[in-house]
Specification:
This protein is α+β, with helices and mostly antiparallel strands and about 160 residues long. The protein contains 3 helices and 10 strands. It has helices spanning about 45-55, 120-130, 155-165; strands at about 5-15, 15-25, 30-35, 60, 65-75, 80-90, 90, 100-110, 135-140, 145-155. Strands 1, 2, 3, 5, 6, 8, 9 and 10 form an 8-stranded mixed β-sheet that branches. The chain binds the ligand COc1nc(N)nc2c1ncn2[C@H]1C[C@H](O)[C@@H](COP(=O)(O)OP(=O)(O)OP(=O)(O)O)O1. Pfam families: NUDIX.
């Protein structure tokens, strides 16, 4: 399946909590997620991650670390999307909601609202929360149904990125 869109998704962390936002529009509307969006033309993945965090929750990320990648095969769309996953535990400014993510809320790692998130989230969040390098591939038959998935942990990011290609 040809890769269509490339996205970023960033998780700010503090005291065993992660900042999530409720998406108010577009892809994933009504679901809690990290902060991110489409990589623009002539933009690096890391610059996209930094820009989206500032646009969507108002802070400047200073130690962004890419830890994984998820490839989504969307059977219903006959296309595949790739989402680059980052974590960040140092940032400047105060987090605030935006037009696209409102409200925002710090969730304890033990209290994440998986019932109001994309169905794939519980599969790879454990790796993200532990800052383990990982690669995942998820096949959706429709927006609510996962046909198959594979998640693998790696010792380095470069190896993790290979599986998603
Ligand atoms: C298909 O499954 C998905 N699961 C999860 N957990 N997250 C996903 C999935 N598909 C996309 N995402 C993430 C990737 C991005 O962080 C957002 C979607 O970004 P959006 O479409 O809002 O991108 P923007 O560039 O911000 O869009 P606008 O042009 O509308 O501002 O969800």
């Amino acid at each position: 399946m040809p890769v269509g869109k490339i996205f970023t998704l960033v998780f700010l962390k503090r005291n065993n909590s992660v900042l999530l936002g409720l998406k108010t529009r577009g892809l994933g509307e009504g679901l809690w997620n990290g902060f991110g969006g489409k990589v623009e033309e002539n933009e690096t993945v890391a610059n996209c991650a930094r820009r989206e965090v500032e646009e969507e929750c108002g802070v400047i990320a200073s130690d962004l670390k890419q830890i994984g990648v998820v490839r989504y095969d969307l059977d219903y769309d006959k296309s595949a999307d790739v989402v680059h996953i980052f974590t960040c535990s140092k940032f400047d400014g105060f987090e605030k909601p935006s037009e696209e993510m409102n409200p925002i809320k710090w969730y304890k790692y033990t209290d994440i609202p998986f019932e109001q998130m994309w169905p794939d989230a519980p599969k790879w969040y454990p790796f993200m929360l532990k800052d383990k390098y990982f690669s995942a591939r998820v096949i959706y038959t429709d927006k609510n149904t996962i046909k198959d998935s594979i998640i693998q942990e790696f010792g380095s990011l470069s190896n993790a990125l290979k599986l998603a290609q």
